[in-house]
Amino acid sequence: MIILKPLRPLILLAALAVGVPLAAGFFNALHPALDSFAHFRAHLAVLLGIAALALLAVRLWAFGATALVAAALTLATTSGSLPAIGMRYGALHPADPERPVYRLLQFNLRYNNPEPAQVLSLIGREQPDVLTLDEVTAAWREKLRLIEATYRYSLFCPYPNGLFGVAILSRRPFVEGSEPFCDGRGALGIAAVNFGGQTVDVAALHLGWPWPFPQYWEVGGLWPSFGRLGPTAILAGDLNATPWSRTPARVAEAGGLTLMQSPGPTWLSRHLPKALFFAGLPIDNVFAKGDVEMHSIRTLEPTGSDHLPVLVEFSLRSSPADPGTDVAALPGADPG
Fold it and tell me: Which domain of life is it from (predicted)?
């Protein structure tokens, strides 16, 4: 104990250094700079918990207990386990055997992904009904031609720099007479898809980095475009923002959408080993509204990108049985 006593001021300073940005993130509605702290809320909470244990070890009981409770409550705000003080996510429901189950795959392909064959193989195995893709370059568009016989209905929204465009690919037809929409900067694409006779607006979104980068202003510029979404819609994309940050809340407000709970970390820097993916950031988000009933949202294995693919399974509440909309399938696959 005598050895540890001189460390008390250093441990207190360390706890303070973690606690200040952690607290700042809770005021993210005041300025986008504070929202940049919010993205790392879970990581800062873990660090605060470690600092709390260190405070208890040097018998600073009051400081240690306070920090430990603060860390636990902070983690609860990110998980949705205490909706009264944290996030409120859309509910997941068990599938109804009387209704068809559809699948959407959200994936930031990574503009320079060295393993495109693995991506196409994953798509072939999972057979999603619709794909929402980010960082779709001209090179990726050429690769995706290999599956265009299956995904016959497509919308490509190129980004001005040629790297960060979005795309929607579908085995199910776009609604006849509808006009797919691109926002002009390749950040947002919307297509009305016919799921067994029922229209669902599917949107792919890719936002830039948080403050000091222009993410906050980008959402503001897209605000009217989110209003294009019809009464039943799914939006999925790489928001470069965690679910508990301000950005997803603004997207949900603009589109009248409900944010679904993240399946866990979906991004990790390529400079870190994949074994650390558990410590990554959950920045690929899924939203829904109207007759969409979500069943599951989960990540799949890595395929060359710094993002994990996210597979979404859902049904439509007012859909009895799928009357057999024209659907393409890969050879030997069940069209579903």
Answer: Bacteria
Q: What is the pLDDT along the chain (336 residues), one digit of tens a residue?
A: 555 677 889 999 999 999 999 999 999 999 999 999 999 999 999 999 999 999 999 989 999 999 999 999 999 888 766 665 667 899 999 999 999 999 999 999 999 999 999 999 999 999 999 999 999 999 999 999 999 999 999 999 998 877 789 999 999 999 999 999 999 889 999 999 999 999 999 999 999 999 999 999 999 999 999 999 999 999 999 999 999 999 999 999 999 999 999 999 999 998 999 889 999 999 999 999 999 999 999 999 999 999 999 999 999 998 655 555 555 555 444 433
Alpha-carbon torsion (257, 78, 307, 220), positive or negative? positive
Neighbouring residues of 323: CB distance < 8 A, sequence distance ≥ 6: 196, 197
Q: Is 197 left (phi over 0), alpha (psi -120 to 50) or beta?
A: left
CATH class of 102-316: alpha beta
Query: Nearest to residue 190, comparing CAs of 198, 178, 180, 199?
Result: 180
Half-sphere exposure of 295 (CA within 13 A, CB side): 17
Hey, where are the domains in the chain? 5-79, 102-316
